[in-house]
Amino acid sequence: MRILLVASAFNSLTQRVFAELRDHGHTVAVHLMVGDDQLREAVRGHAPQLVVAPMLKAAVPRDLWSAHTVLIVHPGPPGDRGPSALDWAIHEDARSWGVTVLQADEVMDAGDVWAHVACEVPPVGKSDLYRGEVADAALAAVLLAVERFASRTYTPQPQHGGGWRAADHTRPYLDQGLRRIDWQADPTATVLRKLRAADSQPGVLDRLAGAEWFLHGGHPEDELRGRPGELIATRAGAVCRATVDGAVWIPQLRRRRGRGEPAAVKLPATLALAGQREGHLGELPELPEVPAPLWLPRERRTWSDVVYREQGSVGLLRFVFPGGAMSTEHCRRLLDAYRFALTRPTSVLVLGGGRDFFSNGIHLNVIEAAPDPARESWANINAMDDLVAEILTTTDRLVVAALGGNAAAGGAMLALAADEVWCRAGVLLNPHYRLMGLYGSEYWTYTLPRRVGAAAAARLTRRALPVSAAGAHRLGLVDRVITAPPEGFGSEVDRFAALLAAAPVLQERIAAKKAARERDEALKPLAAYRAEELARMRRTFFDATEPYHALRAAFVRKQPVRRTRPHLAGGRPRPGGGPGAGDRADGAGPSPPAGRSPGWPLRVRRREGGRSKMLGMSIWTPEPEYSQLARPLAEVLESVRASAYEAPHDALGHAQRRADLAVLDALDAATWPASGS
Ligand code: COA
């Protein structure tokens, strides 16, 4: 079926719906909602049989839902309405919840129900719940609704009337007045609920160290105590704050934006308080750093982002960093913990195993807030590479990466350094860097082709699309897909790891792995992969005109999308028509002119008398960012030239790039004598 996904952002749930519908054989395109007219145009162009909105904050215009079946995914059970569904569920301590797929109608969230699926609500933050139990329920409900729609025999159920009456809960936006924590009265359980209901957005607005902050994340503390509301300790970037009957850990803070100020970025709490670049802010009070033992006793109920334990001859090194972002400091601490794990007499070492993000690579927020973002980027990628190198050179035991949650960019490549990659069935991988304008490191030029082959590696990195767990397994990116709810993933990993450690062929496998590493090292040393990758990364980091810097700034400040990136559109909408013969359904970019590889049109602007004028020419380039940023031609030419020889390409792609470059050169000479001015 031809399905158009309409969403406010290509977020985790939209990505999962996109990847899994494609796994089910559907032709899927994505349109990011920027306005009613653009949506009308997209629907006209794609002529979908079905429109699905996995995460839409705006209403679909009447003329569209009355002419097409538009299915809305609402993260609440039937009868639940309003923009803060999950916030309210956690705020009110619901133990079970659900997701409903309903037909767009006059009243938001009140349309007929195509499918609804219930889910548990464990004590986790809202975004963790959203990416876990809620996403699982949403996928089950969407797939069921699509199947019912395709059958042409199913009649969606009205929420009221006939044999069914859903209880009506239209709840308002959960505002900061309701979220406010009363530190002198709220018990720990209430404080945690309020923090979790606001995690990761919008956070709970509060005063701290003389300034206004949004508090992000909340975890219980079992030993430390203090005067209610007081900050009492720090640990690995988080602050501990006393409540009336205990204390909580708050890992991240975001400064409230003052009038006329740019949006502040969310940072590890101690870093945010220290003010870093914005030195005028409240100083961090003198607080003791109270580290948690790496090998945390099972009965402890405290927060730690890196924990080690053992089970027979299996070592388990669990790490959970907010948003999956790994700063220089995170990488170094994890490397220390990894080195400790290597001193233990185990034969299998499992990395990860937590329920939320495995890793999303270098910490873009910490980089953005650093006094010198280029230097911090450089330090961060080197710290990541040090960690990956240690994993790649572990030859005395098997290393397993266990992904309970999603992984992207360098975080996905971190997983590939392990001997085996296991992931939960609901996991989504984004094994590419280009959307952040980066070539990437983490030894990906060694590990990715080693797993999937050179051609698939080039496709994955160039197309920059999410891959489902099942798709990753088919490609060879993942060795084992574990079907378990998010809460059950850890125990399943324990079970499979014990089986692996007990396997009669284990020692043989370890010996074979050591031999393979030595062979590979003789062919091309790991240091050479690293040096080549880092040379490109260095150029990007230290050149302020590289798209990475603008893309990073937009990402960390959550600048709204202005249009759908062409790699998601799955074929250019054609005025008045459905997909044409040349349109691609695989999201690899719009259809190229005959004889060209898939790519994106690069529009060239000329600056005339301070005004920017679009030249009526375009060439096809594999880099979508360049056309979006509309940078001066000289810069574009430089970047395209530099990147043309960087990514691994098959011979054909390379030849086409050379042809593109020749066109660019001609363009440069013919139309831009004083290029870049
Ligand atoms: N650095 C800092 N923060 C990051 C991050 C990173 N590398 N990756 C994700 N985050 C944060 C997001 O800002 C978001 O923060 P919030 O909780 O304040 O909203 C949170 O983690 C979840 O990410 P989000 O983008 O909302 O989740 P998603 O599931 O919709 O998308 C990704 C996941 C990984 C595709 C997207 O976050 C992304 O592109 N991240 C950047 C990856 C990257 O380029 N890394 C650097 C190169 S190694």
TrEMBL record:
Question: What positions belong to coiled-coil segments?
Answer: none
CDD domains per the record? FMT_C_HypX, FMT_core_HypX_N
**What name goes with this protein?**
Hydrogenase maturation protein
Highest taxon above the source species: Bacteria
What organism does the UniProt record list as the source?
Kitasatospora nipponensis
Formyl transferase C-terminal domain mapped to chain residues: 178-258
One Pfam match: Formyl_trans_N
* Domain Formyl transferase N-terminal intervals: 36-137
Gene3D superfamilies the UniProt entry points to = 2-enoyl-CoA Hydratase, Chain A, domain 1, 3.40.50.12230
Region entry Disordered: which residue ranges? Answer: 559-605
